[in-house]
Amino acid sequence: MTCGHCVASVTEELSEVPGVTGVEVELSSGTVTVTSSRPLTDDEVAAAVAEAGYAVASGS
């Protein structure tokens, strides 16, 4: 992610996942924090990020 439009795209797609109550994106590090009212699967998060045109990095 390199700009505000990138942040908006990722935020929008993740916000559409059922149960998501908040999304915070740190552009400088590419870190995304998602809060939700239910447990989310890795696949749900990865699919939303992919829909925005990005990929989830592996690792911790």
Can you describe what's shown?
With about 60 residues, this protein is of the alpha+beta class. It has one domain: Alpha-Beta Plaits (2-Layer Sandwich). The chain is about 35% helix and about 20% strand. The protein has 2 helices and 2 strands, in the order αββα. A two-stranded antiparallel sheet has the order 1-2. Strand 1 and strand 2 form a beta hairpin. The longest helix is centred in the first third of the chain and has 12 residues. The radius of gyration is 11 Å and the shape is globular. The mean pLDDT is about 90.
Concise description?
The protein is α+β, with helices and mostly antiparallel strands. The chain has 2 helices and 2 strands.
Which features does this protein show?
60 residues; alpha+beta; Alpha-Beta Plaits; 2 helices; 2 strands; 37% helix; globular
| Mean pLDDT rating | 92
Distance between the termini: 18 Å
Order of the strands making up the biggest sheet: 1-2
| Helix/sheet category | alpha+beta
As a whole number of angstroms, the C-alpha radius of gyration is 11 Å
Strand element count? 2
User: Which H/E pattern describes the elements?
Assistant: HEEH
